[in-house]
Write a structure and sequence with these properties.
The protein has 457 residues and is mainly alpha-helical. It contains 21 helices and two strands. The longest helix has 28 residues.
Amino acid sequence: MAKHRSKNSKKRKSSPLTPAKTLSFGFGMIITLGTFLLSLGPASADGRPMKLIDAFFTATSATCVTGLAVVDTGTHFSLFGEIVILALTQLGGLGFMTFGTLIALAFNRRISLRERLVLQEAMNHNTMEGLLTLIRRVITYTIIIEGTGALLLAARWAMDMPWHQAIYFGIFHSISIFNNAGFDLFGSMHGPFSGLAEYASDPFINIVVMILIVLGGIGFIVISDLLHYSRTRKFSLHSKVVLSMSALLIVGGALMMFVLEMGNPATLKPLSWGDRIMSSFFHSISSRSGGVSTLSMADLELSTQFLFILLMFIGAAPGSTGGGIKVTVFAILLGAMYSMIRGREDIVFFRRRLSKGAIMRAITQTWLALFLVIFVAMVLSALEDREFLTLLFETTSAFATSGLSLDLTPRLTDTSKGLLCLVMFLGRVGPVTLAYALAPKSDKELYKYPEGKITIG
C-alpha cells in the first residue's frame, strides 16, 4: 500500500507542466530577463542603472503589451533600452510559443502533442486542427502588417525629422502599436509623456495608427478569415462575432465620446468638426487596448473617463495582441441577457447555438476580472491618496493591457507599482488560465446532486 502511494506521488511530481502553467512560467521568465536587461546601466540614457522596481514594471508592461510607464520611454532609455523594450513587446504580443514553434519549424523539428496543446492555449484556438498553418500565417501577417505600417509612418515622419530617425521611429511605433503596446518615443521631441498629441489633426497618422490597432486587436484568426474570404466565401462564427461586436463598440464609443467631450475646451472643443470626429474614433479604437492617445486622458470629463474604463474592460478579441475580458465574452453576456428577456434557453449567434461550456467560461472570466479590478482598485485607494476613479482607471488599464493613463503611474509608490505589475501579468495571461495553472487537478465527478430551486428577482 505504501509502495503504491509512493509511486503515485512520484508520478504526480514528475508529471509535465500543463499548458496553462507553461504559459504562465514562460511569460514570467521573459519578464525576469527583461527586468535584468533594463536595470543595466547601458539601458538608460544617462548610463545610471534604473531602479529595480521601475525596471520590473517596464519589463512587465512591455511583455504584457500594456504600455503603462513609470518613466518616459523616449527620454529615459538609451537605444539599447528601447530595443529591449521593443523585443519584449514583440515577444509578448505574439507569444513566446509562436517564436519557439517558428524556430522548430525552421529546423524541421517535429512539434509534439504537448507543445501543440500549449500553442492551442496561447492562441485561444478551439482545436488543434490547422494550428501550425495558423502559426505560419501569424508570422507572415505580422511581418507584412508591421513592415507596411513602418514604411507609411516613416514616410510621414521624414517630413519632421531626418530619414534615419524617421525609419527607426516608423519601425518602433509600428511594432508597438500593432501589438497594442502603446509605447512611444515622442517624449524626446515634444516633452516627456507627450504621446501623439502633435498629430491630433493629422489624418494620415491617425488613420494608419487606427488600422494597426484594429488589425492587432481583432486577432489573427479573423485576419486569416478576411484574407481568405474571396476563396472561401464564408466567415467562421468567431470572426462574425468579433467583427460585428468590434464595429458596434468602435462606433458606439466614438459617438458617446463625441457627445461627452464636444464642449470640453481641453479636448475636442478647439478642434474642427472633422478633427473631432476623427479624434473620437481614434480614442474609441485605442481605448480598448491600443494605449496611444492624441489627447490628455487627465483632461477628459469624468463621464468619458468612466466610458473608457468600460471599453478597456471589454478589450480586444481572443487570439489577438490585446487584453480585457474580450469582445466575444461581452457578446456572450449580451446574448445571455437577450435570451433571458425573450424566454429562450439557448444563446444563438448567426443561427449557431453556443455550448454551455463556452457560456460558463465567459461568465467565470468576467467575474474573475471584475473581482480583480475592483479589489486592486480598493487596495490602491488605501495605499494612495488619489481619487478612486483615477485609481480604477489605472487598474483597469493595467488589467486590459491598454496602457492609457491619467498621468498617475509615474507617481505611484513602489508597492502600488508591484501590485499593478501583478495585474498586468494576470491581464495578459488571463485570470482563467492562471486559475487553471494554480488549481489542483480534480477528478471527474461520478455523480450529480439533486436539483434545487432558489428564488431569483
